[in-house]
Amino acid sequence: MLFFIFMVLCMINLCFPKFAWYLRYGWLVQGESEPSKSYMVMVRMSSLFMLLIAFTLAMA
């Protein structure tokens, strides 16, 4: 069950990195700021990496 929750969160983070930024930082600034492009790339790359690891472990 925890595996599926982790997978769903990684997929949401991969598809909608701005949503994750808003949950972590956006509510503090009340919409006056946007995430940088480098932050968006970093979040997507780390989510993809974690998904690959999770799929590899699931297949083992």
TrEMBL record:
Residue ranges of every copy of the DUF6199 domain listed in the record: 2-58
One Pfam family matching this protein: DUF6199
Superkingdom of source: Bacteria
UniProt keyword list: Membrane, Transmembrane, Transmembrane helix
Keyword Transmembrane helix in annotation: yes
InterPro entries per the UniProt record, alphabetical: DUF6199
TM region positions: 41-59
Protein's name according to its UniProt entry: DUF6199 domain-containing protein
Natural source organism: Paenibacillus barcinonensis
